[in-house]
Batch of 4 targets.
Target 1
Amino acid sequence: GPATREANPSATAADRPIGFGRIQRKEDPRFVRGKGRYLDDIVLPGMLHGAILRSPMAHGRIVSIDTTEALAHPKVHAVVTGKDLEALNLAWAPTLSADVQAVLATDKVRFQGQEVAFVVAEDRYAARDALELIDVEYEQLTPVVDARTALAPGAPVVRDEMEGRTDNHVFDWEAGDAAATDAVFARADVVVTQEVVYPRVHPAPMETCGAIADYDAVDGKLTLYETTQAPHAHRTLFAIVAGIPEHKIRVVSPDIGGGFGNKVGIYPGYILAVVGSIVTGRPVKWVEDRSENLMSTSFARDYIMTGEIAATREGKILAVRTNVLADHGAFNATAQPTKYPAGFFHIFTGSYDLEAAHCTVTGVYTNKAPGGVAYACSFRVTEAVYLVERMVDLLADELGMDPAELRLRNFIRPEQFPYPNKTGWEYDSGDYEPTMRLAMRMAGYDELRREQAEKRARGELMGIGISFFTETVGAGPRKHMDIVGLGMADGAEVRVHPTGKAVVRLSVQSQGQGHETTFAQIVAEELGIPPEDIDVVHGDTDQTPFGLGTYGSRSTPVSGAAVALAARKVREKAKLIAAAMLEARPEDLEWEKGRWFVTGDPTQGRTMPEISMAAHGTIELPEGVDGNLDAEVTYDPPNLTFPFGAYICVVDVDPGTGHVTVRRFVAVDDCGTRINPMIIEGQVHGGLADGVGMALMELIDFDEDGNCLGGSFMDYLIPTAMEVPDWETGHTVTPSPHHPIGAKGIGESATVGSPPAVVNAVIDALEPYGVRHMDMPCTPARVWAAMQGRATPP
Ligand code: CDP
């Protein structure tokens, strides 16, 4: 295939930039040499190991639990059941969505894989062996498996422990203007309706979840090593839930082997490790295996969406409307800002200038794992982008128009930014057409359409799929957004040491995104200190300022802004000190990267190392300036940032087997100011692979008894290098007007934007068979069935 267009040129030390640019990742020497320190690498003296007994069935009443034999195992130190936790008032824990979740089941099991008992033993093998010795008697109950029947009269009630609860309803939520939307639909020439399902998938990070709890009974201090994307939020929640004073809790999030939203929540295993350590007086490690991760530790999506799009005959899109049924599993543990039970789904108006829009979302309980995490996306924006980009393609088909042309005609125009959409968002900046045109040029769009026509004439199936997405990342303004009452701000602290080297401390937590490099680059850009002279500290609540952590591509939009502003405070302070050193007035000084000098006399200047030494030295400091070069900022973003992109996917479908090959993928992204293009491309490559996976193979499915059919990598397929093409990436730059350096997030753009491009391409390939829509994942079996005009098989 064609080579990646933006290959990393080997940068020499001489052209290594001080600030933004393509520099090698500071964390790579440790990762490529196997010197990363992940949770399971940590071994504490006297450490014990925990294992969780899980429910074999989706729905059942617990009749009895007998732990006698397990406790008699010579290597077992403790066995904890729901009854034991009830006595500590810890059997149920609050979720991120104002619900509660069983830490260990007391009354019923509500999904296959649910936590039932916890064993603490000398080693992991003994803990696992002892699980077999626990005797649980269940009375099997009929499960609720299909979200569509969850609200049917007479459906079994999943959450019957809740006072007065007689159904499986979680919430109803809406956005937009129903009446105005109905009025536009009533006068539209063309209306297209389609049920679009975004099935249940899983973030499946390379490293599964785990925790090591080390409770010191003497001074009452809990040290908790956790695979977490949000160490500070976890500390606060542990203080609230477990009643341990917050200043006595230290959360350490070491190197994280991928998070993708999977490591945002507090899972029962984390709490059980703490209980295990308190009970035994020893450190306790719990690390889940792959099946536990896939079956019980959260999920993503699971939205059944009925979409409608209204347009004129000429192809002016007027309005979109949707009703969504959201499967939340057995406990409402979805992660999103409190005000938004459907996350940021209401950005489903996409990149188009519409007259009206309206959506309703209904959440239901089923006998499935809870979670609903934002898998590499900003709180349900993935579902939103998928829906609108499928609907636009369906409309193009209905109108007989080219899907690229239809999009180009309906984009929000550059002069309309900041653009208030019809469901309450204000897009900060955008210039969509050049991005789309660049993608079309890179793909050779017209040539591809000619090739497709020739192939169709020969009976070959080639498809071209387009997706144009607008993301909404960097949650978010405190006045609108909180997670369990904690406002979504982030802190940063910059210190310049006497010799001019610096440290920056962050509240966000890298899971592979290269923060140690890019956040040093932000400070380098602002202060002119080389990135290699700046250490980035994160992932330890004892060493970093408070903040809500990394998910939803919010690190750069929120914490990146905090870092830039903290560095600017340092720069201003340096100016006062330089003025004192130069015996000049501060207002007569000018800044060039790394140095203040006297306006009109560039020889009269002081470099940052000279200034930092003076700050910590003996010169008389100006009034009000204390003897350091340190600053701290907590950043409350005024708005989210709205990155966007144009993706074009080319597939070939084997008419005999239904097998889809992604032949080419062109991705043009716009994330505003680019800090490190190499890291950005890496983020995009990973997200595109995610998208191909979801579009073609990933699925957490269930049989009619509620048994999970996606509990291993044999069943839950993720793409490898064999299933993805060489990515062709490009970019445009439209800075965010409200971000200090103009940067928008990029981490998750490609996961959000790519699934519709792949699915649109598959459906485009199947046009000769009259296929207008099929649901993900487009497995060979499903594609083949669609070609036969049959319903989607599982
Ligand atoms: O929150 P998360 O780190 O997952 O997402 P992000 O803020 O979009 O950043 C992902 C990585 O790309 C980080 O290392 C960023 O600093 C980098 N990035 C960049 O170099 N330029 C941008 N405009 C945005 C992100």
Target 2
Amino acid sequence: YTQRHVGHFRSPSETHSSMAEEAKKLAGYAAVDNHVKDNHVVGVGSGSTIVFAVDRLAERVRQEKLNIVCVPTSFQARQLILKHGLVLSDLDRHPELDVAIDGADEVDAALTLIKGGGGCLTQEKIVAGCAKHFIVIADFRKASSTLGQQWKKGVPIEVIPMSYVPVSRTIAKLFGGEAVLRMAVNKAGPVVTDNSNFILDWKFENPQNWAVVNTTIKMIPGVVETGLFVGMAERVYFGMEDGTVSVR
Ligand code: 5RP
């Protein structure tokens, strides 16, 4: 318990979520400490876990006077880089990255990932694909042996807006399940990505051959990208409930 929790009774779910926050921090710090070196070009992922990694990155840049250039994977990542006074770049100037660090919604035993819970999957995949090393950070709730055990919202798929109905029908015909248009929290309209597209969340029914599913879905006209990251992650750092870091 840190100081700010003193005198505050926490329910089991609050305790669980504060443990998860601590776990995210452990993972983020471990990845930055183990994989970022002076003169590196670093891909900065999106989500809540990456916030801790960027905190640590900024701290190391200050303390060790590192020369680091950052390439963002989203508007959120861009803002995070700027907020910390880090050097912001892009793929035009830095098409080859030393390392990319990003979160995930679920990680299976083969290091296949579901990503895109925050809708940033396309730029995340582009940046990860440009990196020599793609390192994933997550809390203990993201680890599974088979995709679908932990992340119940399905595989996010970014689509061109006019195509969402036919793409959704084609995916259901090919693989079963249901691909649902992601709506804004206030239900006023669909979520719109940084690329001005929509997101379908495909709730699949059974474990699949994810490499085949990924390439097949990508071939459907209107699909921009899938949140399946197959054979991309080199290492995954999980912050654990007991305060340790587990590496997969
Ligand atoms: C956003 C992502 C995120 O990296 C993923 O959703 C994990 O987020 P968090 O660190 O908040 O759990 O893919 O599109």
Target 3
Amino acid sequence: MLRDNDLGHMIKAGPSLYPHQWSWDAAFVAIGLAQLSVPRAIAELRTVLAGQWRTGMLPHIIFSDEPGYFPDFDDWGTAVAPALPAGVHSSGICQPPVHAIALELVLQQARRCGGEDLQVAEEFAAEALRRLTRWHEWLSTARGYADVVEIHHGWESGMDNSPRWDEVYAGVKVSRRLEFARMDLNHADASERPSDEEYQRYITLIEQMKSVQFDDVRVKEVLDFRVTDVFMAAILVLAAESLTRIAEDLGQADVATTERARAERTRAGVLATIDPVTGLCRDFDINAQRWLSTESMGGFAAVLMGGDDAETQRQREILLGERWCGHPEMAFPLPPSVSLDSPQLRPREYWRGPVWPVMNWLFAWTALRSGHREDALAWRLAGLDQLRDLSFGEYYEPRTNETLGSPQQSWSAMAAIDWLT
Ligand code: 9YW
């Protein structure tokens, strides 16, 4: 399946709905690819890094030549951005920084293989280190807010239409209705995708960014969407820790010190967002200067990154409990994007309830890392069971396990490969 989605230098996120390289998809996919071919995994990460903007940002989509996705490179209009390097066809926003985590796991696999794989991987790691540090630095500076990470579009979170962002999107002013064709609806059922109203707001934000040529400073003055993202920040903590270890192995003590400090600072920033009542991490609407308390998978940032033992344990119990994985109506005891008991639940609609295999993998991997082997094993077994019909759906209905969205989604296959090897 990954071979079918492979364009040589990039794996399409999905065969027809997503015919380009998405940034966090590529990082996850590289982790699975490493089990099949270390050089191919490295080629995937190389394509991601080659798209790096002059500012340090890794863009969320690198466009292939394939048609069929909206908004494409011309719709984005990033050609006006001084920060876009020559020859790069990309969007103008980012996605969660899974890349250093992927590099560490690819290196681990290369060590198991030894020989040429190891040599190629170590050479690449030495090259990638500087770019990954610049990427993390950009997230902590251009996008640093209260030691968390600020995002400018729901697409940056990777959880596009999660109820986490409803209140923020309500403040996005669609001053003139935009005319565009929703290509996604040619490949997936409208009931499983964001609505037209949501798309009007998504594209309005791109227009706002374009009006200031995607400038990191000026964009903050014109954007209707500025919010901190605790889940993305927790991923930055994990990535900074991976980069610390990679830098230590390469004898780059300065980088290791910087990344260790980044991880500590960001972890403290995320823990400071915990709602004392619910125990979950909260995003903060910067424009409106208010906390966002809508419950979603994003609130479990402390489970992902660890830190304060009591808070992490409390979140872990909530996640495994009756409102979430342990809800009696769940087809499998896996983390849904929204609780089945939530008033916001829409069980077929994207990030508003479905279970995402790649998120199962992420939670299982972090559980293993933090010593909760039994959680990791349970999620791995249930996650494999979910994928049993080999359709590798993008997401699944939480009660019936019906495959939804795009079938043959690359990062869903990655979860299976990594769990089985
Ligand atoms: C879109 C590719 C991407 C993921 C996102 C997911 C979806 C793109 O697909 O967004 O056009 O809706 O929300 O996390 O990277 O798999």
Target 4
Amino acid sequence: MQVQRVVLNSRPGKNGEPSPKNFRLERISLTPDLENGQVLVRTLYLSVDPYMRCRMNEDTGADYLTPWELSECVDGGGVGVVEASRCSALTDGDVVTSFNWPWQTHAVMIGDGLQKVDLQMVDGHLSYFLGAVGITGLTALLGVREKGHVTKGANQTMVVSGAAGACGSLAGQIGRLDGCIRVVGICGSDEKCKALVEDLGFSAAVNYRSEDISARLQDICPDGVDVYFDNVGGAVSEAVIEQMNKGGHVILCGQISQYNKDVPYPPPLSDKTQEILQSRSIMRERFMVLSYMSKAEAALFELSQLVKSAQIKVLETVVNGIENVGVAFCSMMRGGNIGKQIVKISD
Ligand code: NDP
């Protein structure tokens, strides 16, 4: 059978912005003769995520991430349907997911490496397994719960950067549900700010590209900032930390503003910000969702309930076609998405 796949064509290089030209579409023939334990899957949805920028480098800089190899098929989060199976745990029609799904229209995969999903958890929105009821939702929920120290009745103010993105849009809503009295989002366009306030129930939003973050935060967070869910790092985060109260908590989730730069993770802070953290006893702890997978099952169940009961609203930006996965990745890295960036491969 003829299938299409995406391979890594070139690397952006140190300090380089990724470009769709770093990816190449190929047509290959796939022999669907399965060996014991294998399944043939048809890809439904693929996820593009910021961590993939590290996989484009020869050295990812992280021991839990392997680099993508040149001219090899690229992989990441995916959802698909089993079309043929020689794995006893899976049958035709099962919907499955994996963190190592090839960017390919059909693929032969090892059945044991796939996770069968329960469609009722997402009321038929299968792409949610890559977002709100998948690793993104887990990152937001467990990040807030494990590192945020949000306490009902404590009159806390939370700020979220990257707030209109996949993790950020969920983290802010979870902060509100968990008891923060004020949740402020920082993001890169007026359209995104509007969506945060009007659709997702954020108290206020700041456009970091056009507004003075410090002045706006002083205005809309009169009691200072207690919890900061940090997705972006850099100048945005330094401005937020400056407004933080004594004993506050920074959830160090990601630092996307630095991912095209050749700096260690987490990137170093300015002397001034380090001094603020120290003098105000602000805890700034790195959060890695993969370290909390023992809590994933219960957390996914909770996320599913929150989404189905519309206590959490889910935003997605969906692009169609395997030929557009690289385009979608680069667009997400530049802020082209509202909510989770998804690529739909087939119906
Ligand atoms: P998003 O959906 O948030 O997409 C990325 C967003 O980052 C863009 O939409 C863009 O929005 C914003 N952005 C890009 N460049 C900059 C910049 N220079 N300054 C400020 N914002 C920028 O992606 P995810 O929700 O998947 O990931 C969000 C963060 O969470 C990332 O840092 C990621 O690495 C991290 N993460 C961490 C995990 C963990 O276990 N710790 C797990 C999963 C994700 P805008 O228009 O606002 O600029």
